[in-house]
Write a structure and sequence with these properties.
This protein is α/β, with parallel strands linked by helices and about 230 residues long. Helix content is about 40%, strand content about 15%. The strands form two sheets. The protein has a seven-stranded mixed beta sheet with strand order 4-2-5-6-1-7-8. β7 and β8 form a beta hairpin. The radius of gyration is 30 Å and the shape is globular. The termini are far apart.
Length: about 230
């Protein structure tokens, strides 16, 4: 005789179906938790030091600018390394006198004598820097730690969009003050706020020199075409 279901048969059957309905939900929750755990180490770990292109202004958009403040020199170093290593877009050459190169970049008198880093030209004095900016060829930026950059105004006027000056003499050019965290804290003209990022990448002198010396070089006799 077939056994008829009784009320005692109900709970096991009902529990089975409840478990079957809950399993997809449990698997879904477990999957979400595993995904979240995989993301947490990546998102919470500190970012590795790097030069961030988005934090670098375009020197040719404002071709006469002085950087001041405790982070001014470090911001310019980061900008120099970004220009020399990120070879995207139109080629750009950086021109700097040897005394300024030692003060700003750590390049001593015995460094880069018979060879040079492509895109970085070391000259002996200011007149050579001016002559270099007047040559045809790539766009050029003159870096100067001294107050004679006002003499470059004629060159800038003659080569709009092709020449720029970055200085550390605020009494000569429009200026931006950068603090030790890279934040731009003050500008001499309100228009500069639209040109500069709120925070600039920074690079200290020792690290800048180390990275420069790691870059490939070419023989100076082949690369230097200055008169």
């Amino acid at each position: 005789m077939p056994r008829h279901a009784t009320s005692s048969d109900g709970p096991p059957v009902s529990g089975f179906f409840r478990l079957a309905l809950l399993l997809p939900t449990l698997f879904g929750i477990s999957y979400i938790i595993r995904r979240a755990r995989r993301r947490i180490p990546h998102e919470s770990s500190p970012a590795a030091p790097a030069l961030v292109p988005s934090l670098q202004p375009d020197p040719f958009a404002w071709p006469r600018l002085a950087f001041t403040g405790s982070g001014g020199s470090a911001a310019v170093r980061a900008l120099v390394l970004a220009i020399l290593t990120e070879r995207s877009g139109e080629p750009t050459e950086i021109v700097i006198q040897r005394p300024d190169a030692e003060e700003l970049l750590g390049i001593g008198p015995e460094d880069l004598v018979n060879e040079q880093v492509p895109g970085l030209t070391l000259v002996e004095d200011f007149s050579n820097a001016v002559n270099r900016l007047r040559l045809p060829g790539p766009r050029r930026i003159c870096l100067s730690c001294r107050d004679d950059v006002g003499l470059l105004n004629d060159v800038l006027a003659q080569q709009p969009g092709r020449a720029a000056v970055i200085s550390f003499s605020p009494w000569r050019y429009e200026s931006a003050e950068v603090d030790s965290s890279g934040a731009v804290t003050a500008v001499s003209l309100p228009e500069l706020l639209a040109y500069l990022p709120e925070t600039m990448a920074l690079l200290d002198r020792a690290e800048c020199f180390g990275r420069l010396m790691e870059l490939p070089t070419v023989a100076k006799s082949e690369a230097d075409c200055s008169p």
